[in-house]
Specification:
Elements (H helix, E strand, L loop, with lengths): L4 H14 L6 E5 L11 E7 L17 E7 L2 E7 L15 H8 L4 E10 L9 E8 L28 H11 L6 E8 L8 H10 L3 E3 L3 H9 L4 E10 L12 H8 L1 H14 L1
The chain binds hypoxanthine.
Length: about 270
């Protein structure tokens, strides 16, 4: 099946047939951050499996549904559960969610993820506003025939993580008990966590945090000129930063510990952007 304009339009058309809500902001929730969806007022839920040409979530802790409704007076469409390269999807397939949200009319995209800290000044529970990313391998979700309805063949990525949106999010941070950081996110394909040597390399290259998501969505958004605001919730120190293995419930535990403060902060940000 070619990923042409009609491919994405079919998914969007089905979603429009299920609700009159015209979302202005898209939100994608990362591992352990699904409970934020409870903030959505008057929700209309659509399971991914019902949407033609869409993908299905296979990752643990990813609910697998689209939720449309209102947060802080803004109409939103929220993906509770996202898609990752490690699930077996191709880079090209990973263009689907953001292009479908774009066709629903969103003008801004807010992304969240769980991440490991490479920066030794960070602590689990910090929230890092992503200022830029590093992705060195595995090509691009825009690889293959260009779909000109979304954007040009070659496209600029110098302000993918919108400096304007970050400025607004920074101003909302004053009222939050969270430690809000700002830094560079580096993509690793997973599903294995990184090795200590990879983390040392990431630090030399300029990464502050690492994770297995977000960059395909941001690149797809940059191609269709959709401004992105992205938050990496630091759930653990990356491999080798502290003694002992990575994982073992720490990712979900930290995400659930800050859930209520993070939800309050996100609500304020969504009202302000
Ligand atoms: N590495 C990659 N992805 C992650 C991590 C990590 O340490 N923590 C949460 N997501």
């Amino acid at each position: 099946m070619p990923y042409n304009y009609d491919y994405y339009a079919k998914s969007a058309e089905y979603i429009r047939s299920r609700t009159d809500i015209k979302p202005e902001i898209g939100i994608i929730l990362g591992t352990g951050l699904g409970p934020f969806a409870r903030q959505i007022e008057n929700p209309v839920e659509i399971p991914y499996k019902d949407i033609p040409n869409f993908l299905v979530s296979t990752a643990p802790d990813h609910a697998g549904k689209l939720i449309l409704g209102t947060i802080s007076g803004r109409k939103v469409v929220c993906m509770s559960g996202r898609f990752h390269f490690y699930e077996g999807y191709s880079m090209e397939q990973l263009s689907i969610p953001v292009r479908v949200l774009k066709l629903l009319g969103i003008q801004k995209l807010v992304l969240t993820n769980a991440a490991g800290a490479v920066n030794t000044g960070y602590r689990p529970g910090d929230v890092m506003m992503i200022s830029d990313h590093i992705k060195l391998y595995l090509g691009s979700p825009m690889r293959g025939p260009n779909v000109p309805e979304f954007g040009g063949r070659f496209f600029d990525v110098s302000d993918m993580y919108s400096s304007n949106l970050r400025e607004i999010a920074r101003s909302c941070a004053a009222d939050s008990p969270l430690r809000i950081q700002e830094g560079v996110y580096m993509f690793f394909p997973g599903p294995q966590f990184e090795s200590p040597a990879e983390i040392r390399a990431a630090r030399i290259l300029g990464a502050d945090a690492i994770g297995m998501s977000t960059v395909t969505e941001t690149l797809t958004a940059a191609h269709c000129k959709l401004p992105v605001l992205a938050f990496a919730v630091i759930t653990n120190m990356a491999a080798g930063v502290k003694k002992g293995p990575v994982g073992g419930g720490e990712v979900e535990e930290t995400a659930s510990r800050i859930e209520s403060d993070f939800s309050s902060y996100m609500k304020e940000v969504i009202g302000a952007i």
